[in-house]
């Protein structure tokens, strides 16, 4: 990036003013977005204003529109809801109200508006924008503003960020608040599961989502529910019989509980509402099960934002400021959103139009159309749910093929969910599924047993690895492994694990030259807190670890708020991979995050200390520094702590914390459960196909590179990549991929911590169009 370009980012906002408001229902993560808009706005030289109480504040003006400072958004990141308030506003719907709002903005010289809210709020913003010049004319005629003022504010730029827990906005993979709402729901489902098992109960849970079943659908995938009712896909007319049969089948298989999830907008094929009470009465009347209803209500909007929502809010806030400041009178109002892990800009009205089309399709009872409009990711969730919840496993004992499943490497939350879906999808397809205990070591020693449907019952929400996992690699025991492959007639291997799973896969590939038995298809599902497996942007378990670090950092920051002038140095896991340190730094609002991938010198450490000394002179009297465990062999956590303690003498005192193995434990987050479930299903589907392909003279023989793959998430899709092809993309000495997508988020971390650095504006989201995206969305 040239010096000129860097200078441009630093002065992009000079002489401009931005107003930020939150409107409609609140959503966790809105504060992260507000904080990012304020800080990046100030970074570019613009003035930023808070609008309190949504559009109402815009209309009322006066004290409702206040200039924001850098410090005024401190400690906001971990708060749920919206600190600047949100209100449903009737006045803004009338032209009179919009006139008053325009007047207030012109008087303050604000021509950029960032609106964080649902589709209603964003439509309102677009109307405001299209009327802008008429409104100014009227104000000028009435003598409320001068010609000079009207000329200065000749056009209004608008950028929207979607904050809604329903995830009901077309064109965005995830809206701000959805992930946190899922966290709240899953916490409750987990709690209810324990009591339901004690009493053999059936629980009917009603979750939010008047027109959109996303929360209900993902919840049912993440807790292995027996049935889900969503507005987009009403059940068949004989659903009562089907449901009761399904519940009694689950009981006869030995399960002590049933869970039914209902979206508040659930309907039948004729548009008649299906309520949680209806379902309860049906189950009690027909089956006589002890049935309870829990309506979750506003709990789902509450609580702390999850790590994902904080990072999403922060990234969207940065992108929103850039979109506003680069706007011209000709750019349409846009929404900033995330597709896969890429920031994208989409024309606001195209998204709103599509969102309305879904409602229209549903009103006209064109349910298939509605499902399609929701996008591929929604469809995929539905397909996997249907398979796991509605297909009866075949009764015949003779399995079609024999597939073995194992865990390798360190434990990661979500491994059990992956094993569960792999086993069950395998059984549904008519395969015989074996589970291997203790990784490659167990494969060599023959610690192998057959798994039935109920073997993995209740596994989805359990942390760690129930099968047991070891870091041992297969190379030294290829002979015993080959013998057991023959003995147990294993025709395919699904390996769920971290970097060892990947290197183990490479060793199996090499071993094929010596042992014919190893010529069977295998696939690796990345599962490690470090997120360092080549071929995938995310690995199962990293999201859970990130949330654990985040919660801990929140608590630590809170303890510092009482003592003033304290800096915490926190060591995170990750081997040489700086993913956890960087993402946790973004999510917890750290002042610095030291990682191996971005080398640092004593000068950098000195600059960080000086930066903190400077910070202690403001109203924010605490600091948070993250250090990845292997970022530098000489600048250890103790060294950094000692340096900060010495240099900070008389200004601040330092404390250190090594987070350790708590990062590998805990119950998996909704993201990890859902991701693991879908990866497991996808892997088993691939495996069944590959085994059929590899039949040679009555036995399996797979010797091509594409018969040993890593299943990974790349940008917007799940893809199978041969392990041998990934070799060139791997730094084996440090056990990390050579290129890592999240490194480009590092500048955001530094800007939000008030460093005068280059904001690399070359990594830009250009305006895309929605229609094209329908087919290209991530099948996550």
From TrEMBL:
Binding site for ATP: 25, 88-89, 118-121
Top-rank taxon: Eukaryota
Annotated substrate binding sites: 164-166, 201, 208-210, 264, 292, 298-301
Domain Phosphofructokinase positions: 18-323, 403-686
E.C. no: 2.7.1.11
Residue positions of the active site: 166
InterPro entries linked: 6-Pfructokinase_euk, ATP_PFK, PFK_vert-type, Phosphofructokinase_CS, Phosphofructokinase_dom, PKF_sf
Protein's name in the database: ATP-dependent 6-phosphofructokinase
Organism: Rhinolophus ferrumequinum (Greater horseshoe bat)
